[in-house]
Amino acid sequence: MSNNPLLEPIHGxxxxxxxxxxxxxxxxxxxxxxxxVLGVELPVWQEANLLWPERMKQDQTYEIMTLFGQYxxxxxQHPKFxxxxxxxxxxxxxTAQIKADKDFYQELEVARNVAYEYGLDGAxxxxxxxxxxxxxxxxxxxxxxxxxxxxxxxxxQEYTQKQDAYNAKYRQMFASAQGGNVADxxxx
Amino acid sequence: xxxxxxxxxxxxxxxxxxxxxxxxxxxGEIPDKAARMEIRDCPNCSAGRAYRDGLTNCAxxxxxxxxxxxxxxIHIKKDNNS
Amino acid sequence: xxxxxxxxxxxxxxxxxxxxxRMGEMCNAAIPELKAIFKEDQDPYKRAHGRMLAGxxxxxxxxxxxxxxxxxxxxxxxxxxxxxxxSNDFREACFNRHYAFEKRCHDYTSLxxxxxxxxxxxxxxxxxxxxxxxxxxxxxCKQCGGKIxxxxxxxxxxxxxCLYCQTQNTFMPSSGAQMVLHxxxxxxxQRTAHLLKIYEERQPKDPALYQQYLRAMFDQWNQIxxxxxxxxxxxxxxxxxxxxxxHL
Lengths: 188, 82, 248
What we know:
The complex is a heterotrimer of chains A (188), B (82) and C (248). Chain A is mainly α and 188 residues long.
């Protein structure tokens, strides 16, 4: 464990608590419910919620940010939240799949970005189509990011080929849902 | 021909606008709430929540409102631990 | 061969021009709509405007993709297949035309992004100050009904003690006040944008000018949200340190 003083809990709320809370906020849990799970009242939670990002901004080593990402990815295992939310139910369906299947995550990550390119709220589109909340999507992102970076380093070409194929698939899909792109009729 | 293409472009832009407007924002609309005052009575002795020696415990029966150790924050300080 | 090059170049120019015309039509139609949607959008984050803008930028990108594909296939394809026989004139003319097209895309991107202008954060802030002044003396203790004056604008839920019965009430600020906190840095940046511009336009870059800007921006920020001054100053020191490293 590091001696970084910026890692000291804020009002008793540790970085692990805070990271899990953020993940749960992204899944639609209210601030009141978060405060209750953490055993504090709303003013206390809101101060911690303001001060943890300040600590990240002050930390030149990026240690807090890195740990935040790790804890965020493990939010499902946080003892305080795992019992309080969904009665501790395990992830199911696509939510379980996106955390277990890296390719599925990478494909949906592209789909989500392409949705934005076609004027849709990508996060909402993922929620509507797959029932995956923004919080769970971000948990999957934190989980897979290190591995994806390693893959890009190892074989950039393979990575881009895969991304290009996903991009082509979803651009085609979203475009045809809108009756094509503005300049589809212009050819060489 | 050029006019027809122009019309198609206009329709596209209009459709894009309608689509942007008709979607719900993720997490729903953000309600515009007025400022308000709230209070919490002690669930144990039902006394109003008075400040005597701190924020974390009930001033009358000692019930623990919060299971946390307050530190120096923005408005809430270390001294606010009961 | 000459003839093929001439024809290809001509078709390439016509193709890009058609795309540019379409791009212009789309942007001209979209700019007033972007302004309108920005004004209409009740969401504090202006997300409907954001979606429409993203959709338009996506279409610009599709046109760039179209040009890139044709360039790859028809222009580079011809250059590679004919090898040494391709004149430099052909290559240069086609590439320059593509460069001009890309420049157009870039200009239209900026036009679309800037169409709606910035959110007037100053006006919003002044509105919030005014409405806080109206309500600050109107709260009463939930326990004894005694008057509780809210001493300053709070941006998050805060405990306030009743002076008469010592009851801890919780003051919940309005959504607008919470947005002030959210927008505080952006508002401070809007107020000091002229100083940043001076720094950015000066060549060579002068770190003293950046520091001047940064100090002024943080002074404004602290003035908007005084409760955050202590934390802001720590962040300020960090940025100052980063900046001196960048200027080494």
